[in-house]
């Protein structure tokens, strides 16, 4: 290779030396790593690995720019108005023939143009033009005798429609609108002259009609059609002619935009030129607007304040309430309103102008054209404004309401009866007859003919009628207005499906009257309020200072209480305005209400008096005369004072931030929002249950002479809420256990029981799952409870003392082992003949313990226990604390040891079991049946059927028994774990069996 | 009982400047200055004792119906026909914030004790509380239990009290979250607190002022004689709580004895409706404003 090198001759510039390259590279690297980094990104240059700036050709922009070759910003240059060409393609140009034509061709084409065919040229403009041109041509061609162009009328082509011809005959000319106006110059001139004349003799305008000027007729006609006159030429003439532009301002420029007062000035100037009539017109306009507008110096007065927002519009509410008092306000309003008006009301103004222009006519001060008003008929003085029905209302004939009848048992029948009653009440007797006829054969409708349920039907019908009547009355009262019709007690009850208690149908319009529900009075009481103001004359005069008003008020009261038709006249003096009447009416309502309330207070005292009063009113329908005009101002004052002020209190929830800003503690802090508050009562209920149960329990314990259990550990609120239902269940168990232990109390230290109790008490903490349906549980518990106690006590008395001891031992042991529920099952088995093994086991309580443990029902407990063995000491300590019974805890410890020993002894079944516990319930059950440990056989000597039964029971209760045991082990997670396996299947059964459960307890206690 | 002769009766100063009716005039908390607002869409700050017009605040688009100033005189709040509540800086005369939200005209406005909240009463039957501390312009609380236009509002440290045309004076106690409604049966025009905060004086549209005990809602006294039937007129108690002062639609100013409700003095102060009266917090003088465009200091 070296030799080869020598032979080569080098041409051109040599390649750069390696060193150079390297240095440049280094530089590049350095730059890249070093100072480049310090440069702002948009200043950095792109270099290749050789350190050279990259050149990519002029066409693409020369050197690569910095910052990723973009425009110097991170985003680079992005077209801001980019539109996708995908959907929005460039507009496709419509090609026409003209695009392809040459100039000369186009010229050729120009000869042809569109025009109206003569037969469609109604007004003949085109044709006339053509004809005129033709005529001109002709005229030029042949000189005629008549010089100049022939008149249009002569040369008109025959295409003129007949209508146009007629119109022309009538004087219409082309370019004019078609109406019968005589806006011709001849009359106009005459009118102007007349105007001038009138201006002088305006005072004796009345003599004008006698004026026999030739224009007279014309004026009359114009008067007849004033508006036509106004629009006479405006229909076809464009606006600019009507409203000619006379100034030198640019089009659309309004010099008075911000100075409307000048516009007015100008207008007056202009109108002043036109004549006096205009002024009149303006004044008319002003009077129409109700403004005190003057053209004098005030017009130019500077406006107070400054412009309002462009978008703000003054509405009715902006009318200045102080306008009458404050002078400036006139111009103020003027200024605000003027621009609007001048823009929008140009035309009307013109009309008004025209009105005024009518020469010799002023707007009549008292025109004979009046809205015809018919005075209301005069009401005779002796007219009593409410109608007294000879028999108050249709069903008043029936003196008494049918007696209250319990509805028939058959719900369908009840509904049917009620439905029919409603319909009959609504549609009348006819409906009843009809349906009776129709359903003669139908046994369901036998109540119509006096069969089953007739009593109820008649009662129902009566009620319905009462109700309907009440409604009618209210409707007649005209009280309905906008307020929603009050829900009466009855209607509410109806909706809720309640049965009316007693005479509830009476209180239709007043809840106050419901106080006197006691006695069935005359029927009229049922739809008029029984009390009347006559009984309280001293209170019922809130308007003493105004006798008229007072009289009206009494009238009002009378109507209110006595029913009947309320005439409008009665509710206010006929000369009163509608508003005043309404206000008065409100006053009355309020006053009467207060009076009623006053009565309500006095009710008790005056009861006996009232009774008498009622009967009197019911019978005679008193009408009040001037009897009550006894004045007692002090009482009256008191009465009004009693009305108001009325104090009411409501819940109100200040927002948190408001409280914060007021530097106060939010009263609703921590509480649920209002929505959640609705949920609260439920919680309260359950809490209440807890308390009650606690109370019950403690009283029981006390009754047994036991010392009350130590207070349960402090729990969070949440816990107690959740636990509620289960707590109840457990409490019941406690109660039962207490029951059962009652006889035992002789032999056993009270601590024992209390310990038991404590164990139970702590349980609820565990049972987080069973929260549903506290109410049902509650019922179940308490309905059973009372029975149980009695039964238990009865049974206890029958028991022989020996057995008691046995039972005591056994229960104790079971409790110790946590096999409480299992024992229940056994006890149930004991219900029949007493168990020999029990007596055998009396002495060896520890053995029994042992035997109890591997009990098949207890399998899962075992598994739990395995898990919880890690903390047996803690458990025992806690027990010690609570029960203060060392011996027991020792025993427990023993039993556990036994247990574990047992496990060691027979690892086969127990291990197997503990494994399988997790695999599911069914398998477990099977095994239970199949592999009963020998100890169990030994223990169980009762009949197989009993055994079976008890096992079933125990299975059912296993869940809770496991809880009861594992609770003491304090290991929640494990518990949940083990329990959750069978829970799904069991939960439903659990619930249903809860009742039975307690029954079993009961039986158990009978041992 | 203080002497009748102590009651202001002489016109000490006339403050002219408003073009159009003056709708409210209020002393500031120490009584050295007075604020007025009126139909001319301005709020004006005066020294009534020297009769000097100090500053004009313009920004409202419609008439200004009520104005209130903080205790430290640093901020103003005003409201009016433009449905807005303006929160001003007194010194610069700039609007710091505009609170929009009322559906219609705003009748009255007040700061709370700490000037952190503004409560406005509107024709839209609502009370709205606005936060001055945050930058939010949304109301922090809307109270809309009223059934008619709310005319007047008063704030204590813990309560919001408002009078409405529906005849109720409602007290909203923030501490216990309770609303107490005292129905007076007559449209309530104006409410004002006694200086001991135990009573409310409510001006009703039946030409009666009513004094209510706040704790029981009892009607303690009624003051009659003046005319108040169609305008929103102010009323107030004197700084000693011994007398009741109120304007009348005929331009008179009335003074009643608080206890026996007798008219102690009356004099014609203005040519037309006396819209507003405000009693000096310490001295025996008061300002009155009228539709005739003047504000008068009466000593």
Automatic annotation (TrEMBL), chain A:
It comes from the Eukaryota. The keyword Nucleus applies. Keywords: Growth regulation, mRNA processing, Nucleus, RNA-binding, RNA-mediated gene silencing. Pfam families: DUF1604 (PF07713), HTH_TGH (PF26093), Surp (PF01805). Its main location: nucleus. One of its GO terms (cellular component) is nucleus. Residues 974-1007 have a biased composition (Basic residues). Residues 416-458 form the SURP motif domain. Gene3D superfamilies: Surp module (1.10.10.790). SUPFAM superfamilies: Surp module (SWAP domain). One of its GO terms (biological process) is regulatory ncRNA-mediated gene silencing. Residues 217-227, 244-255, 880-928 have a biased composition (Basic and acidic residues). The keyword RNA-binding applies. This is SURP motif domain-containing protein.
Automatic annotation (TrEMBL), chain B:
Gene3D superfamilies: YVTN repeat-like/Quinoprotein amine dehydrogenase. Its main location: cytoplasm. GO terms for biological process: mRNA splicing, via spliceosome. GO terms for cellular component: catalytic step 2 spliceosome; cytoplasm. It holds the Pfam family WD40. It comes from the Eukaryota. WD repeats lie at residues 15-56, 57-98, 99-131, 267-299. It is found in: Cytoplasm. PROSITE patterns: WD_REPEATS_2, WD_REPEATS_REGION. InterPro entries: WD40/YVTN_repeat-like_dom_sf, WD40_repeat_dom_sf, WD40_rpt, WD_repeat_MORG1. SUPFAM superfamilies: WD40 repeat-like (SSF50978). Keywords: Cytoplasm, Repeat, WD repeat. The keyword Cytoplasm applies. Belongs to the WD repeat MORG1 family. PANTHER family: WD REPEAT DOMAIN-CONTAINING PROTEIN 83 (PTHR22842:SF3), WD40 REPEAT PROTEIN (PTHR22842). This is Uncharacterized protein.
